[in-house]
Amino acid sequence: MAVRRSIFSRIVALAILLSLALVSGLWVLTDQTIRVTLEGSARKAVDVDLAGLADIHASSGREELERRIRDRLAITPVDGAAPHYLLADANGARIVGDIAAWPKLDADISESGTIRIGKGTTAFARATRLGPDLQLIVAREPADGGALLRRVMLVFLAGGALFMALVGGLGRLAAGRLHWRIERINDAFRDPEEGRLPPPGGSSKGDEIDELTAHSVAAIARQKRLIEAYRETSDQVAHEIRTPLMHLDGRLTKALAAGTDEPITTHLIGARTDIKRLVAMLESLLDIAASKARQGDRHGLRPVDLSDLVTRICELYADSAEESGHDFGWTVEPGVIFRGEEVQLSQLVTNLLDNAFKYVPAGGRVRLSLASGPVLAVEDDGPGVPEGDREKIFDRFYRSRATEADLPGSGLGLALARAIAERHELTIGLDPSAKGARFVIRGEG
């Protein structure tokens, strides 16, 4: 199974992506929490500072308040959260402090809000009235959380990377185990004869894969029983029919050897011909049924050198073609290897050639070609196939009415060819041709 198509690889990738999304979401939440906490600390510091200065004014007077504000402005805070002050008269004129002008904050209601300090600095501030002609603003910049946020970000990056690595590793191990268990089932269906699965009821895990395994074992066992029953029945039927026919043929042979009148001899020879035709028909029907029963079953298929196989068959047919007066030629690309049963593939090629030589009159042309793919074509310049018969000719016992009375045959040759082709996952059909017929076999891959 290719990795890019594996559902288990997709599950692992999805788990890693979800882990990444989870870590990212937690980072965003943590970042916002830290920022809100720092802002809350600034607000609390402003309220505490403002309350302290108000107490100083109430207990020690305005001069002491001014001195304390100057002292606080002279001190640089360690945490970087710089305080700012403005002590002003009733009109907002500055008495002391580093805030240039009174902002839009109402001291009568102790209004608070964010104000701008200088050009690019903002701070949280609160105003209050200390007397009829005295009002105070205390502002504080939020603490510099950049260093804290960077440290937290590094922790999240390291922890997130470790978390995703663990998720990916554990997910891969789990997916690998599931993949192995599923692949055992697939291998068992590809090659049922190997006994790759445990016997039914042998699993103790009891999960969905084990249930699927149990059903697969039962299905394969049932398939084997059906195939064995079919083989036994077909072999028995073949034996029961073929044996009496062969005995009858033996008696006819003895009768011919004993010598009889010419009319009787002619009838006996015709009877023997019919017997041989029935036996051949029976064998073809059994071959068709066996090929269809094994369709999709890859067991028993081996690499076959099609180029060598087809060349040997063509060399055998070359002598017959010379005797029958046919122009026969072939073009075979070397090194065409295909996985299949050599006997059946030979039968597939010979059936197509037999069909061509049977329908093409003496002096006609028959050509065979083989290319990689594989693509095997047998074409002739005979009478061709009527348009209405192009698909029917692959049915069992079907023979075109145009040739049914002229040529012998049972109408099973092309049906057997299609059954063998389908058993090997090949397609067979008629391609358009200017004259005659062109049968083409193609690999589905």
Describe the structure.
The chain is an alpha+beta fold. It folds into three domains: 3-147, Beta-Lactamase, CATH 3.30.450; 208-293; 302-443, Histidine kinase-like ATPase, C-terminal domain (Heat Shock Protein 90, 2-Layer Sandwich). The protein is built from nine helices and twelve strands. It has helices at residues 7-60, 62-74, 146-190, 208-258, 262-293, 306-324, 342-359, 401-404, 413-423, and strands at 83-88, 94-97, 112-117, 121-131, 134-140, 302-305, 327-332, 337-340, 365-371, 375-380, 426-430, 438-443. The strands form three sheets. Strands 2-1-5-4-3 form a five-stranded antiparallel sheet. Strands 7-9-10-12-11 form a five-stranded mixed sheet, covered by helices on one side. Helix 1 (7-60) runs antiparallel to helix 2, helix 1 packs antiparallel against helix 3 and helix 3 (146-190) packs parallel to helix 4 (208-258). The protein is rod-shaped and about 155 Å long. The chain starts with 6 loop residues before the first helix and ends with a strand.
Low-pLDDT residue spans: none
- Count of discrete domains: 3
Helix content: 55-70%
User: Mean pLDDT across all residues, rounded?
Assistant: 76
Query: Helix tally?
Result: 9
The CATH architecture of the largest domain is 2-Layer Sandwich
CATH topology of the largest domain: Beta-Lactamase
Distance between the termini: 16 Å
Q: Name the CATH class of the largest domain.
A: Alpha Beta
Largest sheet: 5 strands, antiparallel
Proportion of residues in extended strands: 15-25%
Subcellular location: Membrane
Catalytic activity: ATP + protein L-histidine = ADP + protein N-phospho-L-histidine
Domain Histidine kinase: 236-445
GO molecular function: phosphorelay sensor kinase activity
